[in-house]
Structures
1.
Amino acid sequence: MKIVFFDIDGTLYDREDPRKIPQSALDAIRRIQADGNIVIICTGRCMSCIEPYIRQIGFDGYIAGCGTHIIYRGRELWYQTLEAETVRELDFLCKQARLMPVFEGSRYLYADERDCTGDNLRFYHFYKAFYKGKLKPIDYRADDICKLTVRVEADFEGTDAKEQKKAAVRHVAGKAELLGMTVLDKGASLEIFPRENGKGEGIRRFLTLTGLSGTTYAFGDSINDLDMMQQVDYSVALGHAHPRLLSICSCQTDDLYDDGIYKACKKLNLIS
């Protein structure tokens, strides 16, 4: 059996590109499954952020929220949420540093419009439009929050604005780690989730919980795909991937809109 894990953003499609998932990638996924193999989404997004367009493709399961939520063939196998006090502390920490926290869960996203200005307000409205009906004010009592994304496009002023921003990011990252969180710096944002999770750990846990075995493959492009790539037998980096992924991947393919997924599947004999 072959078990194939796909990142979403930048790998299957670009959410700001009207072309969505290339037809060649959809064909490859369906052919992999038709041969009796397993195809799993492995994403930093929580389930609330995986739109019906993707779910309707028919993936066998999901490793969502950077490994905090695992679903296989409709059955929830793992879900690690944040305690209310942790959400409260992280919210206060980010807002004190003038950075925008977006808490994420299986049902909703949580962010406060009143604390957003400039680029952060633009991102707030993007989330509101893209994830229609899924964005709510931050609620410390919400029982589905498992991670957060911190937008770092804060409007610092003065000649040392860049240094203020760097200091704010370092402060939030350091304090979050003391709260038992893993922090991934993605440049424009920080991805923060409970320690002992992550995409790579999610794959390991998925295989343990399902009892599935076979040759494993992963397709990704971003820095948060690094541990996913290291967990599988064959790793595929899309043509535009982060340099650190390119340095450790088994196979580099073309850009996703140049049929990169289909070409890699052919090269690795995932499809004939």
2.
Amino acid sequence: MDDIVLGPTHYGKAEVRVVHVAKNSDEHSVRDLNVSISLSGDQAETHLSGDNAKVLTTDAQRNAVYALAADHGISSPESFAGLLAKHFLATCPFISHARVAVDEYAWARIPGATSRHSFLRLGQETRTTLVHADVDGTESVISGLKDLVVLNSTGSEFHGFYQDPYTTLPETTDRVLATAVDARWLHETPAEDWDESYARARSALLTAFADTYSFSLQQTLYAMGEHLLRTDPQLAEVRLALPNRHHFAFDLTPFGKKNDNEVFYAADRPYGLIEGTVRRSAAAPASDRAWD
């Protein structure tokens, strides 16, 4: 089949999520990257005959992302992408071109937080509203927000949980706690200024997340709901859904490196989902219709 030939090829590891926490005394900084690698060069034989002698595995490419983050930190997406590209060209003599694409998810410190390790994902969350009105003049108003992404780089533990034969999760006294807040709150009376009411509620949720030393995401959920209700006496009930955006410390021991909770794999699924309602004890529970 002389009329059929192999054209250009490339291969790599796509969407390697790496989170690096730079711990400068009590003040942390976070770099959250999504890295995609594509390499090309003398790779024809793996396609034509299955000879993999010149293939740098995509697994090794992934591991390099975490190892280089541990060795050098991440000062910028550009510098880290350049570092990776040069690494692959120097590591494998059969690679002649390296393409490294990086998306960065930016974080800013939560305004007014007393801690220096609490962060808010930049990019606007979605504000939500649900109103029910009847012909007799009865009306219910539920305000809320979703996709408010926040992170504490420390100040969170998780241990002492029930263990069954399938439990493999190790206990920890220092972990990253991250979530995308979905919160809705019921007004007992109409707000005089809806925009101001929303801003106050949003601020209360962020403050509680940042200032709560957490032993579980469930505890943090209650703290956020409680603080919101104490901040605004016109609110009767708040419902929260908090997906646990897991950040697992990447194991660098196979490469002779130590990971002091600074380099993380950000898993997107599956995830824990914590849901709960916090209401005033004197208030009757709102009807389900009001929330749907």
3.
Amino acid sequence: MDTAEKTDNGTHNGMYVIVNNKKLRCGYTTGSCAAAASKMAAAILLGSERKDIVEIVTPKGTVLSLKIEDIRVSDGSVTCAVRKDGGDDIDSTHGMLIYSTVCKRSDGMIVIDGGEGIGRVTRKGLDQPVGNAAINRVPRSMIREALEDVCENLLFKDGLTAIISAPEGAGISKKTFNGRLGIVDGISILGTTGIVEPMSETALIDTIKTELNMKRASGEEFVLVVPGNYGRDFSDEMEGLDGDLAVKCSNFIGDTIDHAARLGFRGFLLVGNLGKMVKLAGGIMNTHSRWADCRMEILSANSLLAGADAVTAKEIMSCISTDDALDILSEAGLMEGTMKEVMAKIAFHLNHRSGDGMRAECIVFSSKYGKLGETPGAADLLEKIKDQVR
């Protein structure tokens, strides 16, 4: 990440990342907005002059200079707002105002809570306990440090309360995963670094971890995982199984296995399309094409183990899609044998990654040919998952 020119929103946060050879502008999180708004509101409340720009330091040590909007001074409190900027990673909260209303306390405590448009936690396993405002741990720490900094500089020894709000939050939350996660009536105040990095994998992995945390906290011991909608839809077709209950892992299969094992799940069932799952047979645990492909190399090599001749293996190597490769294997009478080899290798790599404490099984399908194969314990684990949700 490097610094560059002044950005167009009045701040001096010209940070960029290079993704796939493209220069993309970074933004800042709702947590940074809440901390900056709280800092200025507290400063005005305690007698400092109003300023258009306030500086905060992110958890990684980056100094952000954020523009303050909509300052309101009333009897006993001050309200300030900062506009969320997602940079080139625009999401549903981009452009919305995050407010903080700060008032004095007499007990010396710093209290942080959520107001209008900030969600409330209703399920165990999230970053905050049930009943708390959905202001995550790192943003809470940023807000607290900002308020403490003002108190120290202005020699104020009593306490402060900061109420974070987002008037548009209730409506915008409907475009997020909050409802699925058990956060109601508003958005979450998020961020682990204070900075929004475009196309960040961290945010996706954090979402996956949150879903796993919730399932484990609710007592589930076996988890159904799918890379995306294809896996979910295929799971829906299995009798007694609801694909919507699956955790979507996208391309991050290895990270998902790691976290599930850390949480103490006893079983991990992955259901996915051959296009992604075949990479597991080569030990590839991030299935995004920019990290690795090798689909045809893996299918071609395993077809040889299943008895294919060199001509067939060469034809597979020239295929564009796995369904094309399956057509060739089907015509040669080698699909079942090849998939048996592939599934054995998938089983090895999954369980090597998961370790001794958690069974990892897999079911592989094709949109054209249906179910192609499963690891030895997949059927038994599938029944345990069905029993768990009955």
